Amino acid sequence: ITYESNKKFFKEFVETGKYKQFIVERVDEDFSVFAYPIATVYLKDMDYGNRRCELCIFTSNDDEWRSDSQSLAIKTLLEKAFSEYGMHKVYSYVFYRYSEEVELLKKAGFTVETILKEEVLFEEGKYEDVVRLCIVNNINQ
To answer: Which of 19, 30, 49, 72 could join 13 via S-S bond, C-beta 3.0 to 4.6 A?
Structure first.
């Protein structure tokens, strides 16, 4: 990743509205006026015609990026997707082997839509299944 590739990405995806990217910050418990970044989350492939988009969260090794932080980030993204951007459907892809991520999305209201068999080929030459989950906003239809 370079400065130029980031600049190109920002121009092609963020400025055009195809991606809505956010930094998740943690408020310091000792100094509540201080916050620091712990993760990046985003809505991508904003399809305003069909009113759908993909929810993505970057995994992080930061100890503070645990399920409560992730749940709050997912809830906030869903609120933005449905209320602010007018989406009807939000979907997300998770490698099948990451059952904790599937459960995290299920707790947020997502349901399994399908399992894409042997969808991704890894360097080891082994194919992995991918789960597609979704949530539909049935309010104001």
So the answer is: 19
